[in-house]
TrEMBL record:
Listed CDD domains: nit (cd07572)
InterPro entries documented for this protein: C-N_Hydrolase (IPR003010), C-N_Hydrolase_sf (IPR036526), Nit1/2_C-N_Hydrolase (IPR045254), UPF0012_CS (IPR001110)
Superkingdom of the organism of origin: Bacteria
Protein name: Predicted amidohydrolase
Record-stated family: Belongs to the carbon-nitrogen hydrolase superfamily. NIT1/NIT2 family.
Keyword rRNA processing belongs to the record: no
Keyword tags: Hydrolase
Gene Ontology MF annotations: hydrolase activity, acting on carbon-nitrogen (but not peptide) bonds, in linear amides
One Pfam family hit: CN_hydrolase
Residues of the CN hydrolase domain: 9-265
Length: 287
């Protein structure tokens, strides 16, 4: 871990383009974690679907494993321990652990510097959306949504969210009011909605909550060699780091890579003392 002062935290967002083979995706993720740790990161974050992104649910059913048997999780826990860093695995697609429901789960993990799992969070809001004929998603057909918000005790209190959750501001407000000072939004945003909504929603969540918002993203064209008949999926990229005043501190662009910033943590109290809206909620009669 780097030698930064206690009110500083050096974060590294890893932007990647995963395909549909977890074993093939892992080496690039490991290489980026080692590079970010070598450059002094305290907290490293990967995007949604770090192990695999596939349109082929039958293939996922063959490949995906439950949490306790997942090779990506095991390998990345080893990396966090070896480097002595905090690691937010944006999400892994996993076989679910509910006997009565055979859907997968889309689960985020916060890994502590000793390699232990500090927190896990199952994506709450499912992306069941028809953007256009060519861009139609029904995430809930394949994934079982979670049912609870998670505030993790990381290097500071962290509110865990995933991708489409970004459109539900009440989740972020609840996390901030429960003590979050940093919010994570790992994503695989669609290019169409990414262009129109990604940055403004992330900045809004930061402004509303007085939190740092860290949003590591998938980018580019995702290879899916087992379904040549299908149009490949694309992701918006633009991993973003936003400060509690709503300013974009860094943007990861549209290609794979590492985006690093040293955060001045005193900015959380600074923003909240200037605009104390988090403590000004009023109850009101329903409309
Ligand atoms: O399907 C998988 O295997 C992994 N899950 C995802 O990639 C999810 C559901 S398709 N993507 C999003 O939520 C994008 C949201 C978005 O783009 C928006 O809100 O505009």
């Amino acid at each position: 871990m780097s030698d930064t002062a206690p009110d500083q935290l050096t974060v590294a967002l890893l932007q990647m383009t995963v395909g549909d083979d977890p074993q093939a995706n892992l080496p690039a993720t490991v290489a980026m974690i080692r590079e970010a740790a070598g450059r002094g990161a305290d907290l490293i974050l990967t995007p949604e679907a770090t192990n695999m992104l596939s349109p082929d649910r039958a293939r996922q059913a063959q490949i995906l494993r439950p949490e306790g048997e997942d090779q990506t999780l095991a390998a990345l826990r080893d990396e966090a321990r070896a480097a002595g860093v905090w690691l937010l695995i944006g999400s892994l697609a996993l076989k679910g652990d509910d006997a009565g429901d055979d859907r997968f789960v889309n689960r985020s993990f916060l890994i502590a510097p000793d390699g232990s799992i500090a927190a896990r969070y199952d994506k709450l809001h499912m992306f069941d959306v028809r953007i256009s004929e060519a861009e139609t998603f029904r995430e809930s057909a394949a994934y079982r949504p979670g049912s609870r918000a998670v505030l993790a005790q990381g290097p500071m209190p962290v509110g865990l969210t995933i991708c489409y959750d970004l459109r539900f501001p009440q989740l972020y407000r609840a996390l901030a009011q429960a003590g979050a000072r940093l919010l994570t939004v790992p994503a695989a945003f669609s290019p169409t909605t990414g262009m129109a909504h990604w940055e403004v929603l992330l900045r809004a969540r930061a402004i509303e909550t007085g939190c740092f918002v860290l949003a590591p993203a998938q980018c580019g064209i995702h290879p899916a060699p087992h379904s040549p008949d299908r149009k490949p999926r694309r992701s918006h990229g633009h991993s973003l780091i936003v400060d509690p005043w709503g300013k974009v501190l860094a943007d990861g662009g549209v290609t794979p890579g590492i985006t690093m910033v040293s955060l001045d943590l005193s900015m959380v109290d600074g923003a909240r003392s200037r605009i104390p809206s988090l403590s000004h909620d009023r109850s009101f009669d329903a409309p």
